[in-house]
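User: Can you predict the 3D structure for this chain?
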Amino acid sequence: MMFLREHFGAKVKLTLKRRSKLQIEVDASFPLERGSRAMSHTVDAYLFVPRSLGLNSNTYPKYLFYRDLQTYSELLPGPRSLSDILSPKNGLLTRLKQCAKPSSNIEGEAERQKFENRNRTFCHIVTHAVERQIRQAMEKGDSESCYSAVAQYMHLIRQLLANFRTIEAELADAPESFRRIFCLGDEYLSLLVEDSSCRLADSLQHRGSSWGDVPAPALHALARDELEYRRGRGYPSVPCHKDRHETLVHRRSSLNTYVESVYFLASSNKPEGRLARELLLSMAAGAAMVFATAAAFLAHVQYENWTSTFAVVLVISYMFKDRIKALAQDYLKTKGQQLFFDFKTTIHGQITRRPLGIQRESFGFVPGEKLAPDLMRLRDHNPLEALDNAYCGEHVIRYRRRSMLYPARLADAFPESDVDTIRQVIYFDLTRFARKMENSKQSVFVPDNDSYRRETGRGVYYLHLLIKYQSDTTTILQKFRIAMTRNGIRSIDELHADAAASYRNMCR
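Assistant: Here is the predicted structure, written as structure tokens:
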């Protein structure tokens, strides 16, 4: 299940959905402010975990958290329709055909890389255009306008495939690597059209027989044509019942990754403030040394050298020096965690190593009483949830991310794609959270008219997730409740901040 919050003034999108049985996915999209030299935003996530799950700062240290966390960033091009892609003014197909004609003695790696990037970029843009066309057809309220949108989709997609496949003729004198790149794009587009046509036909048929009878046969025919095309070309992405379509599914997944990763942003991270942390630790050692030196100097003044008393004082001062150093280092480490982030990540393009942005992230457990009042009000919007927090007890995990991006550099990294949005995705594995959960099945007695019946109920644990996005112009605060059992995530529910305020006013 996925929830979407779009602020039309800022075009900021935050979504949360279940990725797998024990994984959640947080998806955040932010617009690129092209007129600014640099843009910054912050994302703070607070996860309220019941104490009964046994997760705290001792049992769940930083390295385990980052082992459960996976992130990536990508750029998204501006929205385009199929008619825009086919328009000669657009020039996407024209530029792709020009790259298909490499210079003589053609094994130049730069030319091959350029053709591959443009081929993947074209397929990526077509994917979003097809999704947009299908969504428009599904949103039509009457059958006549829906049929018109479906007919337009089939006409445009057939024309686009025909124009794209003319590129193969331009590759007659190109090296084999160019033809392999074209075949990958051709196979991907064929799979895309087949899958999109079947999904559209299925959606229309679910509306009723009167909706699906007219366009469904034409959509099925389009899908069959693409299947036969791939079979005739010898592409491996064809159904095979013997292996339960494993080859088809694997091939389709690989092609999706190949195309979509063209906009992925590479990154390299390292611990932040390493030198400053070492200086803090050296200050602790210096403070301990000052104590030991002062004790030795006073002993030298008070007692004669090389006496038993002088030796005892030196030994005791050394003992205190060692403990002062350890305690001071622990204290400065704790303070240093508040001053520095855990990691500093430099974002750069896949081809160029020029920095396109910097991200800093940190993790830690925070006391509930130190959270901002607006966060606690949203957390305790419901009396039962306040009971969970105040009496049953919770630990609060905080994940912070600070981003500084350079829009001009990001746009220059993809000059032909008209990128206007950056998308950041976070995958988080909750397997460690489920290890100490009790059996979810419980007996429930339900009174009946004359007697009662015994049924099986399901007990769940609630994890509350608050996400706060903040930039110079926009602040978004969202709350999600994750219901999960030992076997996995059962549901994800969202409560808007305005809904929480309305609920509190009703209870007054």
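The radius of gyration is 30 Å. Residues 273-339 form one domain.
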